[in-house]
Design brief:
By secondary structure, this protein is of the alpha/beta class. It folds into five domains: 21-37 and 205-406, Rossmann fold; 48-203, no CATH class; 425-520, no CATH class; 590-618 and 710-843, Rossmann fold; 631-703. 42% of the residues lie in helices and 9% in strands. It has 34 helices and 20 strands. It has an eight-stranded mixed sheet with strand order 6-5-9-4-10-11-3-12, with helices on both faces. Helix 17 (356-367) links the parallel strand 10 (339-344) and strand 11. Helix 4 (58-77) packs parallel to helix 7 and helix 20 (457-469) packs across helix 22.
């Protein structure tokens, strides 16, 4: 995370102009429209009517059913002859349509409808599976019943009414046969891993977005405490709020502000920037927000913007240092009642007793004039924990209302793994054999329901299944009593039920529950025992006598002993010698990092970097060749730097001469000659021999740069790498890097980047930490944004503000984090919209205990009350 309060550089300006994907734009537009209608639902999937783009009439609907669906329906129900009598499949009316409609239909069906993703066909596919499994008397029919039940509630317009009627008849017929306990106990398959539920589901607002939009329509002064899990759209919420009021978006982490800017520009919102500002003269408007500007005389486009006129600005994005400047700028064009200050992650740096930001934060709060304030964070202190902050705000703004928005939206599971590879849940934590300790953990989870996101659903239902089948819950807490209907069965409610069950185990039976679970649990990530850390194959062996070892399955019976000298035998391995969970991320454990990039958070970046390179087992000859190329490139780069310095000096002289010439210009008659001379003196003019010669030398040196590369055997999860390290293991979803040669060549030219970091990039690994090479950071940001890196090693400064999509994460032993920062660290993982295989892997189990233990002395709470409300007595 870049906490430097500086102006935006060129690459950052360029990054905000890159449009987001069409899928993201549809979500952003939903958020904007959702401000006006919080109940909004949208679905990109089409019924047959929508696909064909023809008018809806009963006659046409009957005709389409007969033409496209009727045969399919009869084929499905012909699986069992009794279905013909059980369900009415006949049409309700004549299928004659007008001649004009026939012509229109023929015109719109040039594409084979059957080969499309028309929604009716999706429903019929699921219906067919339901019927097949029902006939086979397999419980798998329940999964397809649940899927149909949920999909029928989606907001797809104009689904053929005959298909709707038939499916509703099927659902009603088998309604009483659905065993809710079966659905709950098999919810991993039926709900979590059910791709159709996610793929065909409606897009709608999160509950916390509905609440904040409703609250901010209230015209009174307001303080909104906005708490919601990471990755659930908090950062994009200002797009909706800007529909009614102007927004000042305050962010300590500039990357978050730039992400919002990029999204805002993609949907034509008018934005301005206040980064590293000492006065309003430093504020910059995006072209969309410019009211007064001069046009380029040739292109006709905007040439120069008058940044002092901000009438059109809808969203002002600023850093902490620049807030007051941004505030006064916005007040110059808007009433204070028409502005919302949206403070993103206000607890950044509040885990420190003292920090340079603290004085700025306090000054911003004390001098703030905006009566509408949103404090947004996944780890914001609760309402009852901020008495000084609230009283301070109310004292300044008369009749102010306080809105406490707390969300625990949970659409995916991100399992927590301890250092041994076991899933962590309240009932598996240290001391969980003691029921009173379990209740402490559970009570803490109830106060921080966002932790449910990190309950592994598979391990959760294992406990629920045993407890229910053994009748070990108090009355009223059996699964059939808790869930009234299928409408109640979803991932959030199952995890809430898990908490309720743990609190209502029959007295004296917890020991049975605990021992059963512990004795039967398995590691989520099993150690790779097929190879040792050096890549040598490990084979199981049996002893056939003193000093003699044979591979399993070999036959030595009846043969003489031929070994005349002692040989070193690789002993069979039964445990991971690292003593940790999947820590060999560049070799034998890389295959466990699936679906997307991984982030490895640590304080000692160099230590992790050296470990990754050391464990990669790159042969000395290969490493020597790479280092020689890097050293050669370093020498080339040094010469380029000298020439660039010379070029700067020549340019400075040329500019000075140009200024002098400009001041000596005379008469309109010499105008053409003046322009000709000016062109000759410009620093990029090929006619300037000195500049041209230096530029040619720089170009020649750049062409001499040697591109280094690694054999795929040493690049994690490339095919050759997997064959060496995980030959007999399922590796279909293993994720690897995809870095262009041009990017590697560009990196090789950076002079202030560690050689080890250059080697890491050849392996698909980048580094995020505060260092002097801004260009290296920009390269890494670009690769991370496009998911080109296999892994990013990041310092603890990057716990906040990395909105990139990671599927797995490691928390190193050397991290000393507060409870809030642990949650923020975990929030870097699983930001993807899709349900993939996610894990958060702790290298220190004490961090997990801290996460699930109540902490009465949180520094964030103390400092927030102090800085946002005055000294605590």
């Amino acid at each position: 995370m870049d906490l430097l309060q500086r102006k935006l550089n060129k690459s950052e300006w360029e990054s905000i102009e890159l449009p987001v994907s069409q899928e993201e734009i549809s979500i952003l537009k939903l958020i904007i429209a959702g401000f006006h209608d919080v109940a909004i639902k949208k679905n990109k999937h089409l019924s047959l009517f929508s696909f064909l783009k023809i008018d809806v009439t009963d006659a046409m609907e009957d005709h389409l059913y007969e033409k496209y669906f009727q045969d399919r329906v009869h084929n499905i129900f012909s699986i069992d002859p009794t279905f013909e009598n059980k369900f009415n499949l006949a049409l309700e009316r004549s299928t004659l349509i007008k001649k004009a409609d026939q012509i229109r239909l023929q015109k719109n069906t040039s594409i084979s409808v059957e080969k499309t993703d028309v929604y009716e066909y999706v429903l019929l596919d699921i219906l067919e599976k339901l019927i097949k499994y029902k006939v086979k008397k397999s419980n798998k029919w329940v999964q397809h019943y649940y899927t149909l039940y949920k999909l029928m509630k989606n907001s797809i317009s104009n689904v053929n009414r005959h298909i709707v009627r038939i499916i509703q008849d099927v659902l009603k017929t088998y309604e009483d046969e659905v065993n809710i306990s079966y659905v709950v106990h098999n919810s991993v398959e039926i709900i979590e891993n059910n791709e159709k539920l996610l793929k065909y589901g409606d897009m709608n607002l999160y509950e916390h977005q509905k609440e904040i939009f409703t609250a901010c329509k209230n015209s009174c002064p307001k303080l909104v405490l906005y708490i919601a899990p990471t990755g659930t759209g908090k950062t994009m919420t200002p797009l909706g709020l800007s529909e009614k009021q102007r927004i000042i978006f305050v962010c300590a982490a500039r990357h978050v502000g730039l992400a919002l800017a990029r999204s805002a520009i993609s949907v034509d919102k008018k934005v301005a920037f206040a980064f590293g500002c000492s006065s309003s003269a430093d504020i910059r408007l995006h072209y969309f927000a410019a009211k007064e500007y001069t046009k380029h005389r040739k292109s006709g486009g905007i040439f120069k913007v008058d940044n002092s006129v901000g009438d059109k600005v809808e969203i002002m994005i600023c850093d902490i240092k620049s807030y007051l400047v941004a505030m006064y700028y916005m007040l110059a064009f808007n009433s204070k009642n028409d502005i919302i200050t949206y403070w993103d992650e206000p607890t950044i740096t509040l885990d420190y007793d003292n920090h340079d930001f603290h004085e700025i934060i306090k000054k911003n709060w004390d001098e703030n004039l905006i009566p509408n304030m949103v404090l947004s964070s996944a780890t914001l202190p609760k309402l009852h924990e901020l008495p000084m902050t609230i009283s301070s705000f109310k004292a300044k703004f008369e009749d102010a209302e306080v809105y406490n928005i707390v969300s625990h939206d949970c659409k995916k599971s991100i399992p927590l793994l301890n250092k041994d590879g076991y899933v962590v849940l309240p009932h598996t934590l240290p001391g969980a054999h003691d029921y009173d300790k379990v209740l402490e953990y559970v009570n803490h989870c109830e106060n921080y329901l966002t932790l449910m996101r990190y309950f592994d659903l598979n391990e959760t239902v294992k406990l629920l299944k045993f407890v229910n089948q053994s009748n070990l819950t108090k009355r009223g807490f059996s699964v059939d009593r808790y869930f009234a209907s299928l409408d109640d069965v979803n991932m959030i409610n199952i995890k809430l039920y898990y908490i309720a069950v743990l609190k209502n185990i029959i007295s004296g039976t917890w020991g049975t529950v605990y021992m059963n679970y512990i004795s039967n649990r398995e590691k989520k990530i099993k150690p790779n025992l097929s190879v040792d850390p050096k890549g040598n194959k490990i084979k199981k062996s049996v002893s056939i006598g003193p000093g003699i070892v044979s591979e399993v399955g070999s036959s030595l019976g009846g043969t003489g002993l031929t070994r005349l000298a002692s040989q070193q035998i690789v002993p069979p391995v039964t445990e991971d010698p690292s003593g940790g969970c999947a820590i060999y991320v560049t070799t034998k454990d890389s295959y466990t990092l699936t679906d997307g990039p991984t982030i490895f958070l640590a304080n000692d970046i160099e230590k992790i970097a050296k470990f990754c390179i050391q464990q990669a087992n790159i042969p000395a000859k290969v490493m020597q060749d790479i280092m020689e190329k890097i050293e050669y490139n370093n020498r080339i780069n040094e010469k380029i730097r000298e020439l660039e310095k010379t070029l700067e000096d020549l340019t400075a002289v040329a500019e000075e001469d140009a200024k002098k010439f400009e001041s000596d210009k005379h008469g309109a008659s010499g105008k053409k000659q003046d322009h000709k001379m000016m062109r000759q003196m410009r620093d990029d003019n090929p006619g300037n021999s000195s500049v041209k010669r230096v530029m040619e030398q720089i170009g020649a040196l750049r062409s001499m740069v040697k591109t280094a590369s690694l054999n795929e055997t040493f690049v994690p999860n490339k095919q050759a790498h997997l064959q060496k390290w995980a030959e007999d293991i399922e590796t279909k979803t293993a994720f690897t890097c995809d870095i262009e040669e041009s990017t590697i060549a560009r990196l090789m030219l950076l002079h202030n980047v560690s050689d080890s970091w250059k080697v890491l990039l050849l392996m698909g690994i980048g580094v995020f930490t505060n260092h002097e090479s801004i260009e290296y950071t920009e390269i890494m940001k670009d690769l991370a944004d496009r998911q080109k890196l296999y892994m990013i090693i990041a310092s603890s400064d990057y716990i906040y503000g990395t909105n990139y999509q990671f599927c797995h994460g490691y928390l190193s032993k050397d991290l000393d984090l507060t409870q809030e920062k642990i949650i923020q660290a975990m929030g870097r993982i699983g930001r993807n919209k899709m349900q993939q295989d996610y894990t958060v892997r702790f290298r220190d189990n004490e961090q997990i205990v801290k996460l699930f233990t109540a902490d009465a002395e949180k520094p964030e709470i103390v400092n927030m009350n102090r800085l946002f409300g005055g000294e605590i007595v």
